[in-house]
Amino acid sequence: MTDKPDSATTPAASVPGLEDWQHWTLVMGRAQQMMMNAWAERAGKDEGALPTAAAIPASLPDPMPWLAAGAEAWSKGLEAWGQMLTGFEKAGEVRDRRFGAAEWHDYPLFDTIRQTYLAISDQLLGSVDKIDGLDEAARQKLRFTTKSFVDAMSPSNFALTNPEVMKRTLETKGDNLLNGLSNMLGDIKAGQMSQSKAGAFELGRNLAMTPGKVIHETRLFQLIHYAPTTPDVLATPLVIFPPWINRFYILDLTPEKSFVKWCVGQGVSLFMVSWKSADESLADVTLDDYVAAQIEAVDVIREALGVPAVHTIGYCVAGTTLAATLALLAARGEADKVASVTFFTAQVDFADAGDLTLFLGDETMGLLGQLTEDKGYLDGRYMAATFNLLRGRDLIWSYVVNNYLMGQEPAPFDLLHWNGDTTNLPASWHRDYLDRFYKQNLLVKAGAITVDGTPIDLKKIRTSAYIQAGREDHIAPPESVWKLMDFLSGPKRFVLAGSGHIAGVVNPPALGKYQYWRGAEDARSLASFVEGATEHKGSWWPDWIEWLRERAPKTVAVKGARVPGMGKHKAIEDAPGRFVKAR
To answer: Please, are residues 229 and 193 in contact by the beta-carbon 8 Å criterion?
Structure first.
């Protein structure tokens, strides 16, 4: 049996020789040069000035004492705190992938750091619910702030207290830190953190590959008609409205994950709206424009195929506006244009909308105004940063460690490539959405929202509906998505999927992942639904396609206008089109 090494044999304990000191001097010189080059480049673009000589340190600390002393100081400080708090051993044994490497457990020094941090974290997070005198909104804000602080202060995030980083630094003689500095400077230049390997994915090459044609185009969207792969298709076509805050190919990732490809393979005549990333030309866009765009897409498809009605899907915020669209059609007496509606993680009642409500204060709204007053649109990188903050441990700090401290490239990951492919938002419409929908919660108040001059009421919607929510969704919590059940007056089915806002939706059957729950369709609350629900292993997609076929089972042969570009609406260009590629 091998004994654990004591603290004297931590990765930082070896004594460097002359060659080591020479190498570290070279490493530090290279690091200083990289930073000077970055400053010079920024200054050349009028983004800042070169630092003065006085602002640049004459020398940097020697690496070996730096490694050992930092860890010792951190350990002693946290150990003192740990002695004051209870639950040390219990919290210290929590399984946490940040501390999965053997070094965190094999070396007593780092084992103490790990256990003490976890104990203190547990105490801090637990204390939020014990504080008296806070209303729920204040408690939610404090809980989020505390969790963000705890995640940021993890010893895994600092080179001095992460034994994996220290080990790699010694093994590479500091090259990992130079590579990490290069990665960090590149991310600063790009304005966002890299979460997937650069160059690993390209639209049309290994993402958004499903064949089709753009058959209609406006200043706000392109309409894609996908090529059928079955001899017969459902007579009633389907159009998908993806969120305008993202790019549509979240539903057409690599072929094995593509919802689009899967739908086409199921014999669906499929259309997709591809929203344009906002620029100055879209500064005047409002709710009316997005609703009109959804109606226009439905009408174009009806006319192109000669059908009376179209199935619809609205994902996230596009599901919210799709509810407004259906309410407007109902008010106009045109509800029969839509055969069914499917909502992917969509909200209409924002009373319990989750952690995003923490970003609706006067300071945030004022900042949005400042960021957009010149060009009339919000740079999508700000929205991406907000979503990353909601899952900071996974979407920020894990990449700080991997990219900057370990000096490694992030792994190729199609979903995170999409996550970093940001979309600009029309500024006035974005602020209006946050104000009237999130803050004032007007959409669920009959007549409080007017679209194209018509007051709308969600309870007038009688369209058959399929409502999907993610059990771990942090953007559209299932409790909030459930409220669609309270406002839609037609037949409806609620499905609770395993995982969250993205993985809970993008879950192809072939992967055999997660699960979903079906329950009584007359359940009065989410809690009641869950109590009586039946768990089904794997993807909910087969349940949905069966539900869709039941709504309109008739099929037709693939010919004429069922082939993209062969009907009245000729092909403009191949899918995925220009709009999704515009930056």
So the answer is: no
Confidence class for position 28, pLDDT limits 50, 70, 90: low
- Contact present, 349 and 487 (Cβ < 8 Å): yes
Q: What is the pLDDT of residue 27?
A: 58
Given a contact cutoff of 8 angstroms between Cβ atoms, the answer to whether 449 and 324 are in contact is yes
Residue 225 β-bridge partners: 213, 271
Tokens of 500: 């969250």
Query: What is the tens place of the pLDDT at every residue in 221-250?
Result: 999 999 999 999 999 999 999 999 999 999
Q: Taking the CB of residue 519, how many other CB atoms lie within 10 A of it?
A: 18
Q: Three-state SS for 174?
A: coil
Name residue, tokens 């009605």.
309
Find the largest Cα–Cα distance for the chain: 85
- Collapsing DSSP to helix, strand or coil, 378 comes out as strand
Phi-psi region of 430 (alpha: psi -120 to 50; beta: other; left: phi over 0): alpha
Query: Is the alpha carbon torsion for 358, 359, 364, 369 positive or negative?
Result: negative
For residues 477 and 354, the answer to whether their CB atoms sit within 8 Å is: yes
- 316 flagged as catalytic: yes
Name the phi and psi angles at 470, rounded to 5. -105, 130
What integer pLDDT is reported at residue 16 of this predicted model?
Answer: 54
Rounded Cα distance between 316 and 330, Å, is: 21
Separation between Cα atoms, residue 309 and residue 236, nearest integer Å: 7
> Alpha-carbon torsion 466, 424, 576, 225, what sign?
positive
pLDDT-derived band of residue 62, with 50, 70 and 90 as boundaries?
Answer: very low
Q: What are phi and psi of 46, to 5 degrees?
A: 60, 30
Q: Among 557, 561, 574, 506, which residue's Cα sits nearest to residue 224?
A: 574
Evaluate if pTM is beyond 0.85: no
**pLDDT recorded at residue 57:** 40
Q: Which helix (H) or strand (E) holds 555?
A: strand 555-557
User: Are residues 165 and 98 in contact, defined by beta-carbon separation less than 8 angstroms?
Assistant: no
Tokens 């040390």 appear where?
A: 88
- 52 exposure class (CB count in 10 Å sphere: 0-12, 13-18, 19+): exposed
Q: How far apart are CA 440 and CA 119, in angstroms?
A: 40
Q: Kind of pairing, strands 212-217 and 221-226?
A: antiparallel
3-state helix, strand, coil in the chain (%, to 5): 50, 15, 35
Catalytic one of 316, 496, 506, 548: 316
